[in-house]
Amino acid sequence: MDHSPTQRKSRVSASAVLALLCVAVLVDRAHAATTVNVGGSSGYNYRTWASTTRVKPWDSLFFKYDPRLHNVLLVSKADFDACRTTAPWAKYSSGKDYIKFSKSGTYYLICGVARHCAAGMKVAVTVKW
């Protein structure tokens, strides 16, 4: 059975549309946000964790801790370096905190309880595509 040029063109167009849809779905999945557990299997070695963990814009960092003993402060680099807790940009204290970053950059997070930051409970997270 010989198909007319119009029928063949219609099949090619339908195939092209289907292929484009498949590519769009794959690209969307590649950019889908995920939840990243802070510390991961390295526990409280945040420097190792941060150097080996990829965080993309729209991913959520998940901090799980005892809120009677810890919190999470988002601070400037100067406050991060000095472990200064007096003027955080944001404070999280539920013990199960999800923190989402909408754009690329380096973000500085510290524990604001007692001398925890000075003892190493701080992490610089680089967010990038």
From TrEMBL:
One of its GO terms (molecular function) is metal ion binding. Keywords: Metal-binding, Signal. It comes from Riccia fluitans. The keyword Metal-binding applies. This is Phytocyanin domain-containing protein. Residues 34-129 form the Phytocyanin domain. SUPFAM superfamilies: Cupredoxins. The lineage of its organism: Eukaryota, Viridiplantae, Streptophyta, Embryophyta, Marchantiophyta. Residues 1-32 form the signal peptide.
